[in-house]
Design brief:
- It is built from six helices and 14 strands.
- A six-stranded mixed beta sheet has the order 1-2-3-4-5-6. A six-stranded mixed beta sheet has the order 7-8-9-10-13-14.
- Strand 5, helix 4 and strand 6 form a beta-alpha-beta unit.
- The radius of gyration is 15 Å and the shape is globular.
């Protein structure tokens, strides 16, 4: 069974997620406070096997360099994020592997599929594990990600949000900021869906 721990980090309270089925884990969006994140994995008795980024904005990738340096784990990022302007990343993007739409990977005993959902950024992705979607800054409880940043696109965001409407399963949605929700709730109450 997939266990998920939510750890809000940094000034913007980005949700860093710790996922595991065994004693090996995946980190999604370690945006800041690497010490806090690694203290949590140590407390849980977990070894970090990989870092997955939903996108490359500074508040989602700020802790990556230290986490990767201290654990030696690979870091995955969507290729399209390499076009992000430096004002949005606040430094170089650190990654060892890229992934894209439709890729399926198995890490730390967890299998997931990548869905490219541009709009908030050119290489934003949602990560789909079983009945859970980590939506980054594409979909929030009651809202969606901003599209007024350099590299953002309102038209792309509309198309990405359309994808959520096509899903029939009632996924649990874990966004980049704020509380988790369900797809059913968002279809019913989110004005952007």
């Amino acid at each position: 069974m997939l266990t998920i721990h939510t750890l809000p980090v940094g000034m913007l309270q980005t949700n860093c997620y710790i996922l595991h089925k065994t004693d090996r884990c995946i980190l999604i969006d370690p945006g800041d406070e690497a010490d806090k994140i690694l203290a949590a994995t140590d407390r849980l008795g977990l070894t970090v096997e990989a870092v997955l980024l939903t996108h490359g904005h500074f508040d989602h990738k700020g802790g990556v360099a230290e986490v990767a340096s201290r654990t030696g784990c690979p870091v995955y990022l969507c290729t399209e994020e390499l076009s992000l302007p430096s004002m949005m990343t606040r430094g170089p993007l650190q990654y060892t592997h890229t992934y894209g739409d439709g890729d399926t990977l198995t890490l730390a005993g967890c299998t997931f599929t990548v869905k490219h959902t541009p709009g908030h950024s050119p290489g934003s992705v949602c990560l789909c594990f079983e009945d859970v979607i980590f939506s980054g800054d594409t979909l929030f409880a009651g809202s969606c990600g901003r599209t007024d940043f350099p590299g953002s696109s309102p038209a792309d965001m509309r198309r990405s949000l359309d994808w959520f409407r096509t899903l029939e399963k009632n996924y649990t949605i874990y966004p980049g900021h704020g509380e988790s929700t369900t797809l059913e709730e968002e279809k019913r109450y989110n004005p952007f869906l």
